[in-house]
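Write out this protein's structure.
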Amino acid sequence: MKALLADLDGTLADTAPGLVAAAIAAAESLGAELLERDVAKLRPAAAQGATRLLTAMVGHHPADLLVENMLDHYEAIIADQTRLFPGTESWLALPRFAIVTNKPWRFARHLLGSVLPAEVLLVCPDHAGARKPDPAPVTFALERLGVRPEQAVLVGDDPADRDAAVRAGGVGFVAALWGYGAGAWMDEGFAKAASPADVQAFL
């Protein structure tokens, strides 16, 4: 069986509700007008970081103070507002599994021992010195798991996940059709999974 590497936001876990809640709290505390609050509509923007999410919500590039305020709120609520997508729980029990995320350790660490098992391998940009699509986070995970690129598959919902897998020496890639970033780019010849349970077929 191959090792499984998984993206976090929009693939393993539904993190958008917490991000949107933090943005709303920040906007209200600073008196900023919000044009959009619907989590379902904001999921694609939520996957692109705080600035992109706030831009979608307020209709213009947000002030730095608003971004920082949102991030402070998010750090306080991330563990309570994050939920695993149904079916991904089985991934956590695999003998060789790692999460490879662009979420900074400042936030991701709060998920360990709450949403995620305390012992899971969680690779953030802080550990690898780079963000996906750079292959460094994937390579870091492979080294920690003790596997070669051809012995691993990465499942993700963003072109950055795909590119990081390919650039890491040929790690297999599976597009998560349930993810935030699902779109036409997924029709480029890579494997696709309609649900978390379908990922098992590629291991």
